[in-house]
Amino acid sequence: MTRLAVVIGAGGGLGEALSAALLARGDHDRVIRLSRRTDPPVDFTDLASVERAASWLSRQAGDIRLVIDATGFLHDDRFSPERSLRDLDPEHMERAFLINAIGPAMLMKHVLPLLPRDGRCVFATLSARVGSISDNRLGGWHSYRASKAALNQLVRGAAIELGRRHRHAICVALHPGTVDTPLSRPFSKSGLEVRPPSKAAAEVLAVIEGLTEADSGGFFDHKGEPIAF
Ligand SMILES: NC(=O)c1ccc[n+]([C@@H]2O[C@H](COP(=O)([O-])OP(=O)(O)OC[C@H]3O[C@@H](n4cnc5c(N)ncnc54)[C@H](OP(=O)(O)O)[C@@H]3O)[C@@H](O)[C@H]2O)c1
Q1: Total structural domains in the chain?
Q2: Which domain holds residue 157?
């Protein structure tokens, strides 16, 4: 049976690198790249686009063996990560929750049921270590942190439901490490190990390869180490 891999957010720094790495590896017969600019588009500011894209995916020949959600939002022309509670802005929070939690949740709602019942398959969404509540010792970045924490919780719940119907399916949140992309560029401090997207993509794919069913619902870094929620 034809093996499909799907990358959502394929126009981003990590999404592009992950798509390229998957093509180069050749483990899948077809790598489907979806982004805001593809046909069909996936744009979380139009959540109906998620259901439409999932319906399109359901009509593609083959088994979806891997889905990587590489979407995410940290800053844009209007909003930068908050330094303190004083900077909290409900519109900034709405945007972060929409792109980092609600959009990926809708992806899980519509795409997880498309995974084959038999054999190994993986849904991995890119989260961030700063979404770990127990690891938060610095404060700040409230909207990003809280929306990624929400994402991690949604992944956990989705994995539990998924496991009831798809015994060999795996659903996880992954931290890709600090990667040189438009998302991180304004904030990468000296001292942090900033890696090129190609290296990060290879590491993320190696982590995915090593996941077992027992890991479903978990949160892992780019070395495959579990991150505490
Ligand atoms: N870079 C890092 O250091 C780092 C560290 C920790 C975690 N992460 C996480 O890794 C993931 C990828 O980040 P990146 O560094 O590759 O950032 P990026 O280059 O800014 O890419 C962001 C991605 O989000 C997608 N996106 C933005 N707004 C969207 C919307 N309204 N609807 C649907 N998709 C939307 C973009 O989709 P299009 O394809 O449509 O452009 C793009 O693929 C994010 O979840 C980020 O939080 C990154």
Answers
A1: 1
A2: 3-220
Residue 30 lies in a domain: yes
Name every protein residue with a CB atom under 6 angstroms from any ligand 1 atom: 9-15, 35-37, 42-45, 70-73, 99, 103, 126, 128, 175-176, 178-179, 181-184
Atom of ligand 1 nearest to the CA of 42: 33
- pLDDT per residue, tens digit, the chain (229 aa), is 899 999 999 999 999 999 999 999 999 999 999 999 999 999 999 999 999 999 999 999 999 999 999 999 999 999 999 999 999 999 999 999 999 999 999 999 999 999 999 999 999 999 999 999 999 999 999 999 999 999 999 999 999 999 999 999 999 999 999 999 999 989 877 667 899 999 999 999 999 999 999 999 999 999 999 999 9
Residue among 47, 180, 62 nearest 108 (CA) = 47
Asked whether residue 208 is assigned to any structural domain, the reply reads yes
Residue 173 in contact with residue 219, Cβ under 8 Å? yes
Give yes or no for a contact between 147 and 132, defined as CB atoms under 8 angstroms apart. no
* Cα distance between residue 204 and residue 221, in whole Å: 8
* Residue 229 falls inside a structural domain: no
Which numbered atom of ligand 1 lies nearest the CA of 188?
3
Give residue 184 CA to ligand 1 midpoint distance, Å.
10
Residue having the nearest C-alpha atom to atom 21 of ligand 1: 12
